[in-house]
Each structure stands twice: as structure tokens, then as C-alpha cells.
Amino acid sequence: MHPALSVIFFTVASGAGFGMLALSGASTALNAQASALSILLTEFVIALGLTTFGLLASTFHLGRPERAWRAFSQWRSSWLSREGFLSVLTYPAALAMASGWIGLLSPTALKWAGAATALLALATLISTGMIYASLKAIPRWSNRWTVPGYVALGVMSGALLLHAMDRMAAVFAVEAMAMRLTGWIALLLLFIAVAVKLAYWWSIDHAQPRATIESATGLVGRGPVRQFESPHTAENYVMQEMGYRIARRHAKKLRRIALVLGFIFPALLLLPSLVIPGPIGAALFAVLAAVLALIGLFVERWLFFAEARHVVTLFYGASAV
Amino acid sequence: MTSLPPPSPKKLGLVIDLDTCVGCQACAVACKEWNAGGVSAPLPDRDPYGPAPLGVWFNRVHGYEAGEGRRSRTVHFPRSCLHCEEPACVTVCPTGASFKRAEDGIVLVDEDLCIGCKLCSWACPYGAREYDFDSGVMKKCTLCIDRIYNDSVDERSRIPACVVACPTSARHFGDLGDENSAISRIVAERGGVELMPEMGMKPVNRYLPPRPARAGDGHDGPDYLEPVVPAEPERGLLHWIDRILSR
What we know:
The complex is a heterodimer of chains A (321) and B (247). Chain A is mainly alpha-helical. Chain A is 68% helix and 2% strand. The radius of gyration of chain A is 22 Å and the shape is globular. In chain B, the strands form 5 sheets. Chain B has a 3-stranded mixed beta sheet. Chain B has a two-stranded antiparallel ribbon with strand order 2-3. The relative contact order of chain B is 0.21. At the A-B interface, α3, α7, β1 and α8 of A face β3, β4, β5, α2 and α3 of B. β1 (225-229) of chain A pairs antiparallel with β4 (60-66) of chain B, so a sheet runs across the interface.
């Protein structure tokens, strides 16, 4: 599949933003939110900035962005519509939560607003994953690890960003979340996310083909079928959009880059940010961990598209997908 | 609504005979000609006479070789929308632009609602949808809906343009939901198949497989690459001349 930059920006940025909202919503609901109000609000603005930037980036992928509002209508059948619907619903819940932090809500109402924010943010991440997981025509995506991948990577990058901001706030002597809990949660989420991503890669490497050139052409039981001539001399839309292929050795290299930048370096940088007593050093490590993780996720998301093969390529000479 | 309508008894579709298709591209050209002026117009072409033309076509004629050795054969294979009974291209649509008609099962795009997200083209296993980069909307085969129901067209011509154009009658149009229709009888008689049933889209169109080769029609003869006449013995005048000329 053709890796469109707008979609990659969208899924990485809004994934991190909704991950942040899910975590701060959960901590609010559990009454574990110990950071100072100024940090909470800064993190909140950054989270909404990321989700908004992501949603705007996704409209650059559209042929008619001025009609994007129509995408909220078909939530009964379309995961893309559900994603749009849920992402927009998250905003009022998150704003209610923020107003509760300021003190405009009763403690019980604040807990409910936090829970609603967390659930809606998680539901948005799940529906993003389901857009891809529900496409049977792309066998590597309609895979049980696709949705866990989107959720785990989103929440992980959100936790890394929250931790980085907590550490930065500590530099300015603002009371950040107690015991550096966010950092430990981020570390745990890093391990979960890398396990899910490795499982995804393992499963797409070992998946049996779901369709063959014989089943695509209906020429079954006649021996092998191969493309004899192409219907057109140049590429068409179908080949450009669905026929994108990445060389296997490039994919291997990029997987290593994604693994090192997205998971290994952030994990190694998180540890010093958790144990160093000086706030400036800790902040430096935490910020570096978050930035590298986002770059790694960008590579990972690019690969998610580039490695996925569409069954329509069977008509253009692929033998099995 | 992109939720699917209840299954209709009427299922309009095409049956394509892979035995008689000669790969002449007449259906593809006729399709482009009709639809470039019909409800789907325009069907843009970028750089049409340059080195890398890129255009919107609803019908593409592929060529395959099936089997090996003396029993292999070339199969010409027209590919277009199969008007599936459970089309994923419709259910993934976020705006309601893609829909399946309840009355005859034709899958269409309402271009005024389409936002050009291209997700339907990802969902289709058959590559039936092509994006119009000029209008920013998705386009697809309409089964010539502006022709088959068109009162101003001569009644005999109220069939899809590709079917009219086929010089070998390899394309048939009709109601595949009615098991007594002419088109359904051809499918039953010839063992028509659906493409990629494993994708679960339940395509309506059927493809008639190439008929098996008969004994004595050349398929039981020598392999094509074997010499048909035994080589001359390596002596005599002709051999001597051959050696002179071969120098």
C-alpha cells in the first residue's frame, strides 16, 4: 500500500494525543492525578493540539476536504466514520475534565468526566485500528495484532510525552506527578507496545496467503497462472495506490530502525530520567526519549503501509497475497 | 446510507466468457467512450499521449497464461466491478456516497457526497474503483445505469456499452438473481465461477472458464519446442552445402 505522508502524520500525532488524553483521563477517574494544575493544563493543550493537528492532517488526504463533515454520518457501518465521530466526541469530554481540574465540577463529576475522556480516547484509538483491521482485501492488516498495535503505540507515545512534560515542569520547580509514576507507566507501556509490534511483524511474516492469482482469475485447477500481458502500458491509480511494494531488505533495515528509535533507545533513556536526581538531566533524557519514540513510530507507521500488500496485485502479476 | 439494503431478488450483472474473449479491448474502449459522456463524466486522462498516461477506466483487459507445456493457454481477462452482494467498498464509506441499490443491486457512487478518502478503493479486492484526481472523487462502473434504463436509447441497445461492443459475444448482461434468466442458464451450463470467493464479498458477476481442450485438436501433439521433422543425417551434398553456408 502506498504510504501517504498525511495519513502517517495523522495516525502518529493523533495516536499520541489520544494516548495522552486516555492516560490523564484514567488518572483523573482514579483520583490519582497528583500533578500541579499548570502542568495538567499544559499537557492538556498539547494533547488537544496533537489530536487536532492529526485530524487536520488527515483531511489533506481527501480529494474534497470541504466535505469532510459528511464523514460523521455513517457510523453505523463505517469504522472511518466511527473514528471521526468518536474523536470529535472526545473533545467535549476532555473539556469537561479540564473544567473539573479548575474546580468547576464536583469531585464526582470530575471522576466521570475523566472516565469518559479515557474511554472515548481509547475507543478512538481502537476505531483507527479497526479501519485497517477490517479491510479483508489487505490480508496483513486484517490481523489480530493491528488493533492492539494502534492502541498500545498510541498510549505508549502518550505516556512518554506526559513523562517528558512532567520532567520539564520539575525543572521549573513545579510540582509534577508524584514518584515519577508516569515514567514507570511509560516504561511498562513501552514493553507492552514492543511485544505487540513484534507479534504483528512475526504474524505477517508467517501468515499463509489468503488469495492466489488462480483464485483471483477463477482459473483454478489448470496449473500455475501467470501474467502474460498487462492491460495498460503505464501505471494506473490501482497500481499506484495499492501496488506499492518495498524491497524485503529495505523493510528489514527499516524494521531495525523503528525498533531501535521507537522502543530500545526510549527505554534506555527512560531509566536515567527516572533515577537521576537532578531535574535538568532527567528532563533532557525524558524529552529525548519521547522525541526518538515519535520518530521511530513514524518509521513504523510508514512500514505498516509499505509492507501491506493488497490482493488486487494478484491481477497485476503477484502469485499469492 | 452505506449500510447494505436487504438482499434484492433482482441482481443485475455481467457474465464474461473467458473461452471466447479475444482480448481486443473493444469493451474497455466502448466503456470509456460511453462513460466519458454519461453520469460519471468526465473520466480524466493525464498526459494521454505522453510517456506515462494516467487515466480513469472502469474496464481493464488483462492477459494471463494458465497451465504449463502443451496444455497451457492464453486467457484474456476483462476486469470490472462485480457489483458484489456484500460489497466492502460500500460499508466502509464514511459519508454515504457509496451505496448499493435495493432494487437491482447496482453499486454506485454519489459523487456529490464523496469526499475522496479513497478507503473504498482499499476495501475492494478487485480494483474496480479508480480515483478521479481532477474532481477529487471516486468513480466506478455503473453497469451503464444511464443506458440500461434510458428511454431515449433504442430498446435493443439498453445494455451496458461493453456488452454491445463485444465482437465475440463474450460478455452477457442480465439478472443473475433470476435462475431462469438466459444469463443464469449460461452460468449453470458452463460452470460459471465467482472471483476470489475467499474475500467474502459475494460478487454477482460470473466468469465462464475456458472450455477444456479436446483430444486431436493439436494439444496432444508434440511439445511446441520439439523439432517436428527429424534432423537430416550428417552426410551428403546438402550437409556439405549447409556446412559451407554455416561458416
